[in-house]
Amino acid sequence: MDGTSTDPQQLGIHWDGAVNAWHIAGCLYRMGRREWLTDAGWQQMYDAGIRTVIDLRTVSEGQPREADPVVSAEVTSRIQIVHCPTEDPSNEEFTALFGPYLRDPAHYADYVRLFAVKLATVFRAIAAAPGGVVVHCAAGRDRSGIIAVILQNLAGASDEEIIRGYQQGMRGINERHRHHRAPHAHDAYLEEDALEAVLASRSASLLEFAHSLDAGAFLTAHGVTEAEVAAICTKLGSRTD
């Protein structure tokens, strides 16, 4: 597939402008905010078989930034954008548990408990989506990371694959923070030793969450039909190339 390595250790996606873009499985991908993509990046994404982009952010997060490239409606109109916010920041428990935003797998279980129905809506959108699918949040790390873990759980991924997926996302946004200011002071760029320590702690929390999860049961308990789960599994096993 264009822009995709066949080496399972190197699953980064090289669409021009894309930040923290990774292959999950089959024809499913994840990345940071889509506004970072250039015209060429949108074209590359289309050429790779992507026909649906699912935005996990709240409405207020979708505002353009001064440094975002200008892209034409012609290239973006061929890919369906589906808005499926996974959270409600006005929820009092959200702020008490996560602060300004989710940033640690130790909190994934609470996040899923609070927003189970919203998360299930994402999976219904994946099931219904034509072609290859990209899910994106802001950084491409935690909200898209939860979706990725649930998909990996559904696909029977190994612990190694699950950890690698999270660490790729963590490293990817950390690398961007090396050259661009992070949106919050407590999420600044980490030098390698500090990053490794954080990765070790968060990877352990991630596996604890993954081991507690029965993806199929979770989805069907929150309104995703068995036919929709089957459609997602088909996407997990198919490629767009």
TrEMBL record:
Keywords, alphabetical: Hydrolase
E.C. numbers: 3.1.3.48
Domain Tyrosine specific protein phosphatases per the UniProt entry, residue ranges: 113-181
Name this polypeptide is given: Tyrosine-protein phosphatase
Enzyme class: hydrolase
SUPFAM superfamilies on file: (Phosphotyrosine protein) phosphatases II
Superkingdom per UniProt: Bacteria
Species this chain originates from: Arthrobacter methylotrophus
Gene3D superfamilies assigned: Protein tyrosine phosphatase superfamily (3.90.190.10)
Molecular function (Gene Ontology), one example: protein tyrosine phosphatase activity
Keyword Hydrolase annotated: yes
Pfam families listed in its UniProt record: Y_phosphatase3
